[in-house]
Amino acid sequence: MRMNRPQLVALLLLAPAVLNAAPPVGSHISFVSCPIIRDTRSVPCWLSDYRSDRYYLTIQSDVSAEVQPPYLGHKVLVEGVVTDKPQICGGIVMSDVHLSVMPELDANCNEQLPAEDRYVIDFNPRPPGPSAGRLAFAGAPGTPRQAAPPARGPQTINIYFDFDHGVSFRHPSALSSVLNAAKQIGAKRMNIVGVRGAHRLSDGTLLQEAPNTGQRRAQEIAGLLKGAGLDLPGAVTWTSGESDADGVDDWQSRRVTVELLP
Predict the structure, then answer these.
(1) Which of 1, 5, 7, 53 is deepest in the core (most CB within 10 A)?
(2) What domains can be seen in the chain, in order of their start residue?
(3) Cα 28 → chain centroid
(4) Is 227 exposed, middle or buried (0-12, 13-18, 19+ CB in 10 A)?
(5) In this structure, are residues 64 and 133 in contact, taking their beta carbons and an 8 Å threshold?
(6) 74-82 vs 94-105, strand pairing mode
């Protein structure tokens, strides 16, 4: 079909919008971009732009939050699933969000937006004083805490990491899980495998951690467990997750896997 000039002009104007349209609901997206902090009347929120869209990441919070906020001066690796929930702070909301601050400094990542009345965060702050990990390990106030059933038989525990980072303040609970499981099953052997993470970004780029990351993590975890009294025979090895990177839950490749054998 032959198009006239007005139709051709309209098509050319429409093409960029189609190419840059937001991914459909349910799509896994993964990108690296500068974080943006927006002030609100209650608590600041974090956003990030990818292509022509703005995404909501999380609120500013303390170390007990499930999703740790990024910070200015560094880009952030964003991984999540697009939802159709109402926008927050002017950003598209994602589920299964995983954020990882990139180690390199970037002076361009310094955008701060003022508060606007149209953006309101429903924020219920924790009680005054240190959290003592309450928000990380306890349920809602008044909810009885249920003990986990005792471990039995061989156990495999994964410990996850931020991109190109080793052990941080978020790992004590994971290390405690290893110690508890080892005690419950009477572990006699322990194998530790460190994985160098790899990520297939939404634009097709393969993002990899430093070559020695898997080794560094495996040895660091082994040393910490030994220092805590868990000194068992077994192998400490490392590998790369490059072959498994497909853009879906690639954050799971940033890990150390601890295998406990009774």
Answers:
(1) 53
(2) 25-113 (2.40.50), 149-261 (3.30.1330.60)
(3) 13
(4) exposed
(5) yes
(6) antiparallel
DSSP reduced 3-state for 19: helix
Q: What is the token pair recorded at 99? A: 């954020």
Q: In what order do the strands lie in the sheet with 236-240?
A: 155-160, 255-261, 189-196, 236-240
- Note the pLDDT tens digit of each residue in 153-203: 899 999 999 999 999 888 888 999 999 999 999 999 999 999 999 999 999
- Which of helix, strand or coil describes residue 8? helix
C-alpha 235/C-alpha 233 separation (Å) is: 7
Write the CB contacts of 250 (distance below 8 Å, at least 6 apart in sequence).
Answer: 30, 79, 197, 198, 199, 200, 241, 244
Whether residue 203 contacts residue 78, with contact meaning beta carbons closer than 8 Å, is answered with no
234 and 155 Cβ atoms separated by less than 8 Å:
no
Q: How many CA atoms lie within 13 A of 150 on its CB side?
A: 7
Decide if pLDDT at 259 tops 90.
Answer: yes
DSSP assignment of 134-166: HHHH--STTPPPPPPPPP-S-EEEEEE--TT--
Q: pTM score, two decimals?
A: 0.78
Burial of 191 by CB count in 10 Å (0-12 exposed, 13-18 middle, 19+ buried)?
middle
